[in-house]
Design goal:
Helices cover about 75% and strands about 0% of the residues. By secondary structure, the chain is mainly α. The protein has a two-stranded antiparallel ribbon.
Length: about 800
């Protein structure tokens, strides 16, 4: 019973032994006792923890006590030393206190000086900072002042550079907030002011460049015209050399010593544009300016493309195209010299817009133009305009196509004018041989058209084989060729010789030849006039080669191509046919006049009692007329034509004589009348032989002479005078002596041959048997002809 509590305590101690071990380890390691305390309270055993802590304290006190006992001597010595140190500390404290008093007495004055020094250092720092601030402000102020001066003097680029420098390097580093705020506010305002000023200057430049665009275009087109004139002069020299070579003269070649300067550069001021572009680029609004420039130039172009209805296009076309040329010359210069301001697409868009409008204007104006010269003037200027802009890289083919499309209309108008001119020329021509009194007239009317028969200058006055209408018509044709070449050249066609040849044929055939034919068929022409027209046509036929050669020269076509077979004008063959028409008309006039004289045959006594000793009166008139006719034709017509006229006249006379015998008005005739007709034919044959020889035709037309033209009438008279007329029925004799006679005509005429009763009675008493034999032979012929028919 006595040991029970002791056992319980031991058990309790053993039960809490785990806490004690942990507690001791934690204290030994200097760890935090918080978790152990929290654990004890959570377990509801704080008394056990408190008990253990007390045990720990007791154990530590025992350890301290044992330690003190173990080191007692050392501890006493340490306490003694500590007491000595304490005494020394008191002594040191006393000395330090006294030294401190002395130091405070000495340093109090120095402290005052130090405070003053620190204050001065602070002042120095503030002053230094103020100076630095002032320097920055002064620099900024100077920059601002310089910027204002540049702006005032319109030197905007350096002003913008200064503004850019202030913004990048000074604005954020400016210590004065007020100044920084003012500058920050003024920079946009200055930039806006610069932009407005530059735009104002640019707008002034836009007005100026539009006002001088026409002058620029005129100068550029003038340069193109000078270049064209130089090319034409070179071609003229080349044609002259070719002509000299063609005529057998050695051409003289000379080196052109005249220096031809390159085209002068068109001067116009783009500095305001470059400046505006550069300033807007510096302002960072380049795209805005480019768009502004394009829109304004587009508006100007639209204004330039407007046509005033108050002024004829003939008067306004040159300023119109010169203005457009100047516009695009400026745009081309801007495109090539200002980087980024214009793009090729913008320029092409402007050009396409202008081209569309120009085509529309030209087509409309050409449709209302009714004068060839007006069309030519406009076309020449348009081609110069095209040449000018093509040199600046613009495509002008659509314009040239408009000109080509108006080619037919131009030539129709030109042909109409030529038709009127040629009509006036033919109307005013008297169709008499042209008398040339001076050499310059000879050169102007004959040599210039190669109408001379030899290179020797004739004696004056010179009588030309043509009338005044020939050189006048040649001048019209030459002018037509030149005008046609002027229109066709510098167009879309490189080789336009074939086109010119077509129109030249049209002029020669449809205009000149038709006018001559109209004059031949409708005019009341005399013999000499008809003869002169025929001679004129022969001359004009020869000029076809000349005009074709001139056309080839103007078209720069080698002459050997023109001289090829089948390369000539169709008009040459047409004129040849017209010559025949003219000859026929001439023969009709001659026949009409001969008919007047042949009508005098009605006064012949067809039943005369005595045979006439001389020719009848009418044949004298005919011979006189034929003599005049042949003499005139010999002066005017070539030998071929002279031959045709003579042959035609004599054929007509022969036919008319035969027709007189066949005429119903002639009921009968006798032998004496036939003798008279025989006398007429002898006189006519003598004249025909003499003229055939004197005119020189005998050397060219030996197969058929003038006498041969009277063969039918001669054979008829021979038959009627023959002693054996019935020989006509003998084929051999008929073929040899009467081959030109017709059976029916002979039968009809023989029936009319009847001697009078007086003649018959007289024949019984006075005539011999030979006459009776002729009568019997004639009766036999009549009877056999009746049987034959």
């Amino acid at each position: 019973m006595m040991h029970a509590p002791s056992n319980k305590r031991t058990a309790a101690e053993n039960g809490d032994g785990g806490i004690d071990v942990v507690l001791m380890r934690s204290l030994g390691n200097g760890e935090d006792l918080g978790p152990i305390v929290r654990y004890a309270f959570e377990c509801g055993k704080p008394e056990a923890l408190l008990h253990q802590l007390r045990n720990v304290v007791k154990k530590k006190e025992v350890e301290i006590e044992e330690l003190c006992k173990l080191h007692y001597d050392e501890f006493i010595l340490a306490v003694d030393e500590l007491r000595g140190v304490l005494v020394d500390a008191y002594d040191l404290k006393s000395s330090l206190s006294s030294e401190n008093l002395r130091l405070q007495e000495v340093a109090s004055a120095l402290l005052l000086k130090l405070d003053e020094l620190l204050e001065l250092y602070l002042i120095k720092k503030n002053v230094t900072e103020a100076i630095q601030t002032l320097k920055v402000c002064v620099q900024v102020s100077k920059l601002c002042l310089a910027c204002n001066m540049h702006v005032a003097n319109n030197r905007f680029y350096p002003a913008l550079k200064i503004l850019d420098l202030i913004e990048k390097d000074y604005l954020q580093n400016t210590p004065l907030k007020a100044l920084r705020k003012v500058i920050d506010k003024q920079i946009p305002a200055i930039k806006l002011h610069i932009e407005k000023q530059v735009c104002s200057e640019f707008n002034d430049w836009l007005l100026h460049i539009r006002s001088i665009a026409k002058e620029i275009g005129q100068l550029a087109i003038g340069q193109a015209a000078s270049a064209r004139q130089g090319d034409e002069e070179k071609r003229a020299h080349q044609r002259e050399a070719e002509e000299q070579s063609r005529s057998g003269v050695n051409p003289v070649y000379a080196l052109d010593s005249e220096h031809i300067d390159e085209d002068t550069v068109l001067e116009f001021d783009l500095a305001p544009l470059y400046r505006s572009h550069h300033i807007h680029t510096c302002l960072g609004i380049q795209e805005k300016f480019c768009e502004y420039y394009y829109n304004n130039r587009l508006m100007q172009l639209n204004l330039d493309l407007q046509i005033s209805s108050a002024q004829p296009f003939l008067e306004s076309h040159q300023p119109f195209f010169a203005q457009i040329a100047g516009f695009f010359i400026v745009e081309d210069r801007v495109l090539r010299t200002s980087k980024g301001l214009l793009s090729e697409s913008h320029v092409e868009s402007l050009w396409d817009s202008a081209m569309s409008k120009m085509k529309s204007v030209l087509e409309d104006q050409f449709s209302h133009t009714n004068t060839a010269n007006h069309l030519l003037l406009i076309k020449d200027f348009v081609t110069l305009f095209g040449a000018t802009l093509s040199r600046h890289g613009f495509q002008v083919t659509p314009l040239l196509e408009v000109l080509d499309n108006s080619r037919d209309k131009y030539h129709e108008l030109l042909l109409s004018e030529c038709r009127k001119q040629i009509g006036d020329i033919l109307t005013s021509d008297t169709f008499e041989q042209m008398v040339i009194k001076k050499e310059y007239e000879y050169n102007m009317n004959v040599v210039s058209f190669h109408l001379q028969s030899s290179d020797t200058v004739p004696a004056f006055p010179f009588i030309a084989p043509f009338s005044s209408s020939v050189p006048d018509a040649c001048r019209v044709v030459r002018s037509f060729i030149e005008d046609s070449v002027s229109y066709l050249s510098y167009g879309g066609h490189i080789n336009f010789h074939d086109v010119l040849k077509k129109y030249l044929d049209k002029l020669m055939i449809d205009v000149l030849n038709e006018a001559l034919l109209s004059m031949i068929h409708t005019g009341n022409l005399g013999v000499s006039q008809a003869m002169q027209i025929a001679a004129n046509i022969a001359v004009l036929e020869r000029t076809c080669d000349l005009f074709l050669w001139q056309a080839a020269q103007l078209c720069s076509v080698p002459l050997h191509l023109v001289e090829r077979p089948h390369a000539g004008l169709t008009a040459k063959a047409v004129f040849k046919a017209s010559q025949n028409a003219a000859y026929n008309a001439l023969l009709n006039v001659v026949d009409s006049k001969l008919d007047e004289y042949l009508a005098l045959m009605s006064s012949i006594n067809w039943t005369a009692d005595e045979a006439p000793e001389h020719a009848n009166d009418y044949i004298h008139e005919i011979v006189i007329y034929l003599d005049l006719l042949i003499s005139t034709a010999q002066q005017i017509l070539p030998l071929d034509a002279l031959y045709k006229v003579g042959v035609g006249a004599l054929h007509h006379i022969s036919d008319s004589i035969v027709a007189t015998f066949l005429s119903e008005s002639l009921k009968r005739f006798n032998f004496n009348a036939i003798i008279g007709i025989d006398n007429d034919l002898k006189m006519l044959e003598a004249f025909a032989d003499e003229r055939f020889q004197s005119t020189g035709l005998s050397d060219f037309k030996r197969d058929c002479s003038f006498r041969d033209c009277l063969v039918e009438s001669r054979q008829l008279v021979n038959l009627l005078l023959s002693n054996q007329p019935d020989d006509f029925m003998d084929p051999v004799i008929r073929e040899k002596a009467y081959g030109a006679l017709d059976y029916k005509k002979v039968a009809t005429i023989c029936e009319k041959l009847k001697d009078s009763p007086d003649r018959l009675f007289g024949s019984l008493s006075n005539r011999n048997a030979k006459q009776n034999s002729r009568k019997k032979s004639m009766d036999t012929l009549k009877r056999r002809l009746k049987d034959f028919s």
